[in-house]
C-alpha cells in the first residue's frame, strides 16, 4: 500500500510546516543549519526522477527509497563505470539542493543563500562575511570553469558540468 508523507494543502507557510513535521523527529536533522534544504530535496521532482522541476505534494515509500539510494556508500565490487555513475548521481543530488529554482545553474544568489544558512549557527560570522565567502567561492568557480574572463563578462552561474570540475 501507499504510505504517503504529505506536504499539506498547496504552497505557502502552512504547507511548508506540515512538510517539516514529518522530519522534525529525526534527531540528526534537528541541528542541521540546512535542514529545510535537505527536507525539500526529498520532495524535489528531479531527485524523485519525476520531472525537470517542481515539488511533489507527497512521497510514498518507493519515493523515499529513491531518495535514500543517493546516500548509499559506493560499493567497491562495482565496475569503474558504475562507481562513476554512482558518484555523479550523488553530486547531482547535491547540485539540486543548491539549484533551488531548477534552472540548471547555481547562481550567486542561490549560493549565497546556502552559505548564509550554513554559517547562520556561528555567532562569530556576520551576514556580510558569509556573503564575501560566497562571492569569493563563486569567483573561484568562474576562474576554474571559464578561465580568464573579459572585464565585461558575467559568470551566469555553476552548471552541473562546472560543478563536477
From TrEMBL:
<keyword id="KW-0966">Cell projection</keyword>
<dbReference type="InterPro" id="IPR011992">
    <property type="entry name" value="EF-hand-dom_pair"/>
</dbReference>
<keyword id="KW-0649">Protein kinase inhibitor</keyword>
<keyword id="KW-0449">Lipoprotein</keyword>
<dbReference type="InterPro" id="IPR002048">
    <property type="entry name" value="EF_hand_dom"/>
</dbReference>
<dbReference type="GO" id="GO:0032587">
    <property type="term" value="C:ruffle membrane"/>
</dbReference>
<dbReference type="GO" id="GO:0030027">
    <property type="term" value="C:lamellipodium"/>
</dbReference>
<dbReference type="GO" id="GO:0004860">
    <property type="term" value="F:protein kinase inhibitor activity"/>
</dbReference>
<keyword id="KW-1003">Cell membrane</keyword>
<protein>
    <recommendedName>
        <fullName>Calcineurin B homologous protein 3</fullName>
    </recommendedName>
</protein>
<keyword id="KW-0539">Nucleus</keyword>
<comment type="similarity">
    <text>Belongs to the calcineurin regulatory subunit family. CHP subfamily.</text>
</comment>
<dbReference type="InterPro" id="IPR052490">
    <property type="entry name" value="CHP3"/>
</dbReference>
<keyword id="KW-0106">Calcium</keyword>
<dbReference type="InterPro" id="IPR018247">
    <property type="entry name" value="EF_Hand_1_Ca_BS"/>
</dbReference>
<dbReference type="Pfam" id="PF13405">
    <property type="entry name" value="EF-hand_6"/>
</dbReference>
<keyword id="KW-0472">Membrane</keyword>
<keyword id="KW-0221">Differentiation</keyword>
<feature type="domain" description="EF-hand">
    <location>
        <begin position="86"/>
        <end position="121"/>
    </location>
</feature>
<dbReference type="GO" id="GO:0005634">
    <property type="term" value="C:nucleus"/>
</dbReference>
<keyword id="KW-0963">Cytoplasm</keyword>
<dbReference type="GO" id="GO:0005737">
    <property type="term" value="C:cytoplasm"/>
</dbReference>
<keyword id="KW-0479">Metal-binding</keyword>
<keyword id="KW-0519">Myristate</keyword>
<dbReference type="GO" id="GO:0046872">
    <property type="term" value="F:metal ion binding"/>
</dbReference>
<dbReference type="GO" id="GO:0030154">
    <property type="term" value="P:cell differentiation"/>
</dbReference>
Amino acid at each position: 500500500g501507499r504510505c504517503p508523507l504529505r506536504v499539506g494543502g498547496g504552497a505557502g507557510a502552512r504547507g511548508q510546516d506540515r512538510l517539516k513535521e514529518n522530519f522534525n523527529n529525526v534527531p540528526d536533522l534537528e541541528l542541521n543549519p540546512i535542514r529545510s534544504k535537505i527536507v525539500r530535496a526529498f520532495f524535489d521532482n528531479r531527485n524523485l526522477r519525476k520531472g525537470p522541476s517542481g515539488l511533489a505534494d507527497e512521497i510514498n515509500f518507493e519515493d523515499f527509497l529513491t531518495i535514500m539510494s543517493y546516500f548509499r556508500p559506493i560499493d567497491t565490487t562495482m565496475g569503474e563505470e558504475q562507481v562513476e555513475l554512482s558518484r555523479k548521481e550523488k553530486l547531482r543530488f547535491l547540485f539540486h539542493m543548491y539549484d533551488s529554482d531548477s534552472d540548471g545553474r547555481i547562481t550567486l544568489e542561490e549560493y549565497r543563500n546556502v552559505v548564509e544558512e550554513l554559517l547562520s549557527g556561528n555567532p562569530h560570522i556576520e551576514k556580510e562575511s558569509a556573503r564575501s565567502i560566497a562571492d569569493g567561492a563563486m569567483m573561484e568557480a568562474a576562474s576554474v570553469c571559464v578561465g580568464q574572463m573579459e572585464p565585461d563578462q558575467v559568470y551566469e552561474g555553476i552548471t552541473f558540468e562546472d560543478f563536477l570540475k
